[in-house]
Amino acid sequence: MTIKPSPKSRNVRNGVLRFLVVIMLPALSAEAAELVKYCRINAAGRPAYAIVEKDRVRLITAAPYEAYEKTEQTFALSEVKFLPPTVPTQVLALAWNYKSHFVVGNVAGQDDEIPPKFRIPQPFFKSPSCLVGHGDKIVLPEDAGPTHAEGEMVIVIGKRAKSVPRDKALDYVLGVTCGNDVSERYWQYDEQNKDIQWWRAKGADTFGPCGPLVVTGLDFDNLQLRLRLNGAVKQDVNTSFMMHDVAGIVSFISRYVTLLPGDLIFTGTPGNTEEIRPGDFVEVELEGVGVLRNEVTREQGLPNLNEKDP
User: Fold this and answer.
1) Are 94 and 71 in contact (CB under 8 A)?
2) What is the pLDDT of residue 310?
3) Which of 257-287 are b and which e, b meaning 16 or more Cβ less than 10 Å from the residue's Cβ?
4) Which of 93, 256, 255, 260 lies closest to 164, judged by CA?
5) Least enclosed by CB within 10 Å: which of 39, 47, 127, 226?
6) What is the pLDDT of residues 156-189, one digit of tens each?
7) 35, 75, 76, 78 from 50: Cα distances, Å
8) Topology of 83-298 in CATH?
C-alpha cells in the first residue's frame, strides 16, 4: 500500500527544504562577497549567538556587535532552534515606506507624488515582546479581527547611534534580517473602534516574527523581498523601491531617538497585504539572508473584549 503525504505535511516538508536551500546557497559565495551570517539560537537550553558556516553554526562568545571569539562548539544548521536574532532595547517600524502600499489605510497619493508627511520617514514603535523567531507561532488574540502579514526587511543596529549623518549611517548598521510586521486591521483602522495608537494592532505578543539570520555586507537597498502565504507569492518587490533607504532611515531616527546595539527597525511593507488565519504558514524571504517561516494559530480561552456585556 502506498501512503501519500497529506497537503499539510508536504507544506511543512517543502518549507523546511526551502529554508535550508535559501540559507545554505548564499553561504557558498559568502567568502568571496565578504558576508558574515549571524544567528541567535537555543544551545543546550540557553540562548547563544553563532556564526553560520555552510551547513553548521559555530557558537561565539558574545553578541556579534561586541568583541567575540569563535568557540569549538558547533551544531547542524538543520537542527538548531532559532531565537529572535537580537535582544533589542527597542523595536521600531516604518509606516508606508513603499508607494505601492499607500492603498492600504487609504493614504493619499497619485501618480508619482508622495504625500508631504511621507517625505520624511514615519516610524512607530513595536513592543519588544512582539518578537518571535523562525519556526515560532504567530498567535492571534482571541478577540482579534482581520489580521494581515507584512513582509519586511529589518535593520539591525550594530553600535550606539545618536544624530548620525546620512553619509555615516551605514557604519552603525550591523546587517539586515527578515521580518513580518503582523497587523490587526480592526484595531488599526476601524473608524468607530480603532485604538488611538497601534500598540496592540502591531505590538501584540508574537506580532513581530524576525530572523533567522542577520547578514552583513549586503547591498541593503537592492535586495529582493518576497512574502509567501501557504506557498503562494503574495508580495514581491526590490528594496530599491523603498522611499527612504537604510542610511536615511537610521540617520533620521537617530536625530530623535538614540539607537543601541541590537535594536531593530522594520523598514515597511510593499503593495497589498493578505489576511492570515489559523493553520496558515507565512514565509518572508530576503535575498542573501534566507527564509523566515511561521505558522498561524489563535489564542483560546480568553474573554472577547469586543463583545458587550448582556
Assistant:
1) no
2) 40
3) eebebbbbbbbbbbbebbebeeebbbbbbbb
4) 255
5) 47
6) 999 999 999 999 999 999 999 999 999 999 999 9
7) 14, 10, 12, 14
8) Fumarylacetoacetate hydrolase; domain 2 (3.90.850)
82 burial class (0-12, 13-18, 19+ CB within 10 angstroms)? Answer: buried
> What would the grid cell of residue 178 be?
527578515
Beta bridge partners of 139: 297
Q: What is the rounded radius of gyration, in angstroms, for the C-alpha atoms of the chain? A: 19
Q: How many beta carbons lie within 10 A of that of residue 112, not counting itself?
A: 6
- Burial degree of 130 (CB within 10 A; 0-12, 13-18, 19+): buried
0.70 exceeded by pTM: yes
Residue 131 in 3-state DSSP? strand
pLDDT digits (tens, 9 = 90+) for 229-254: 999 999 999 999 999 999 999 999 99
Distance, in Å, from the CA atom of 138 to the CA atom of 277, rounded to the nearest integer, reads: 10
**Domain range list for the chain:** 7-81, 83-298
How far apart, in whole angstroms, are the C-alpha atoms of residue 262 and residue 90?
Answer: 9
Taking residue 106's Cβ as centre, other Cβ atoms within 10 Å add up to: 7
